[in-house]
Structure formats: structure tokens, C-alpha cells
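Changelog-linked ticket: xanthine example.
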Amino acid sequence: FNPSDVIQLGQHEFFMPGLVDTHIHASQYSYAGTALNMPLLQWLNTYTFPVESQFKDLDFACKVYKQVVKRTLRNGTTTACYFATIHTDASLLLGQIAHDFGQRALVGKVCMDINNSVKHYKETCQESQEETYRFIAELLNKKYPLVKPVITPRFALSCTGTLLGQLGAIAKNNNLHIQSHISENPEEVRLVKQLFPDSETYTDVYHKYNLLTDKTVMAHGCYLSDEELALFKETGASLSHCPNSNISLCSGVLNVRNVLKHNVKLGLGTDVAGGYSASVLDAVRRALDSSKFLAIQDPDLDPLTFEETFRLATLGGSQALSLDDQTGNFEVGKDFDALRVNTCVAGDDRNIVEVFVAGRRVVPFTDS
Ligand code: XAN
């Protein structure tokens, strides 16, 4: 090195691996921190679907997507796994914005051919399949080095079996990532059993349609049985633990110890806007709180340690997204995704002085 190129860390400063958000709805950022007064299914019908339907408007989408990418980067999210909406062009725009700001991202155009409450916010099965093909082709064609498409059936209640099967086939034939939701809320689990009577469990529904692979991440999983967790392990599918959302929507509490005991890959998700914070540091805190809450109820349960939770927020997340060959820690050969932290101030994003993704400084933002 030329000595003038060497920058010394200041006192009270250190580098840590970048944070990985394994589950965030970019399209819900506009109402984060509001509208948490009802359980999941009513919340989707009342707030979420009406807002998401507005992303047909590309100006609105551009404004919200720029805000969420900038906010998450400032909070140290070097890798984000995003849900967009059903709109292909707006979803492509999210990919472009993540690329422009230098964030590593998986971007999913949401697929849903059932919506009995907000009827204009859904696709036909054929539209969903065709638009998914278009989304993948156009995003891959951009050749963004850090942004990839992810197949995104919203969840079993929003998709017919036919659509789930088509999406499983597209993912398999193109070796793509997959994301969805599973076993978040008791009412949801009950309705899935009703809608898919041929499947023994919620996990079996996704498995039947080839949606559980070693590139799959499923959000929540609060009510998965040991047998279902064993199927996650067998297929290599992972879970995204979203403690803020689990509490905010009164959905449930994930027993992380049990997930880890089953050797299922696990990362943390902010799940904006079911979760009210776009910060993975907040997810770390809520994960610790949730685990201590379970330990209060069952003294035989060991609460998570800080070290374990830090790992979930970094390496665990990269493993959950099958990106651990590129990011997650400072192992030689991986990209330099890092936060320069100064411990002198705050206890929030103000501690994050600089953010690097793949060796490029992306925070503070430059004007260009
Ligand atoms: N299931 C969901 N859960 C959640 O927390 N947010 C969502 O947008 C959603 N859709 C289905």
C-alpha cells in the first residue's frame, strides 16, 4: 500500500460484517410505524393490499423505493431480500435503485392470483407466470453484479396450487432463489389446511410444489412442528426470523433454540411494515427480547446470547439466503461488505459511520 492510501480507524471504532435483512417488504416502507392495530389477515386486507396496489404508479414506486434503499443502507443493511409488489416494471425499478445505491439485493416481483378482499390487487395465473418470466429475463439482462431476482409467491393463501406449481418449476429450471411466508399466524395456518386438504402440513404445501430448496427462505415459521422443521433441514430451505413483526401483529413467537436444534438455516428479517423498524439492529434486539420472553415462560430454555444473535444478523442471514460464499463475514475470498462503527454516539444508525458493499463505499451517499 501507498502509506497515503491507508486510513486509520479512530479510537472507539471497529469494522464489522454488513447486516443481512432476510425479509423486508420494500413496498410497505411508506407506512412503516403505523397501522399495527389488527392481526395479519385483516391487516393485509385493510392496509397492505390497498397500499401495494398503488405501486402501479412508477413515480410513487420510485419515491418509496429510493427511501427504503437509502434508509436500510444507512442502517447497515448491506444485503436485503426484498418483496416488491405484483407490478413488474416497479419491481424492476427497485432492482435498479438497489444497484444504483450499491446494495446487494434479492428482489422479488410478488405473485398472487387470489385476493378476495381487494379484488383489483391480483393477477390471473397466466399473467403471474408470464410477468414472472419477463421480470427474471429483464432483471438478469441488466447484468447488475449484486442484484438478483427471487421467485416470490406471496403465501399459500394468495396463490392457487396451479400458480405455486408453475413458480416451483420456473425456480427449478432457472436455478433461482425463492421466498415466501409460512406459519405466521394461527388463523392463516387453519385456512391453509382448509384450502389444501391434500397436504398434511403447511410445509408440505410448498414442498409438493417444489418450492422448498436450498435457495428458499421462508419468513416467520412461528407454528412449525418438529416434523416440518425436519423437512426444512432435509431440503436445505431456511427461515427468516422476524421478531418485530411477530410481536407487532400479535402473530406468535418463534422458538429460535428449537430451529437451531434442528440445524435449519436461520437469519433475521425486519419484515417492514409488519415490523415497524427498517433496522436489523432492531431485529437483533427484538430477537433477544423474544427469546428471553420464552425463557421466562420455560426456565429450561436457554435464551439467545448476544453473540448468537449477532451471528444471525450477519453470517446466519447470508447462509439463509445462500449467499454465504460471497458475504456474511470477513473470511478471505468473500466480498468486503462492512460497517465502520463508532461506539462513541447514540446506539442506532448514527453509530454507523461508513458502509461498504463489495469493497465500494456506499454510505455516506455521494451526489452522483
Ligand atoms: N403474509 C404476510 N405476512 C407479513 O408479515 N406481511 C405480508 O405482507 C404478508 N403477506 C402474506
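Closing comment: Example verified and attached. The chain has a mean pLDDT of 97. Residues 25, 40, 44, 48, 154-155, 181, 184, 245, 271, 274 surround xanthine (CB under 6 Å).
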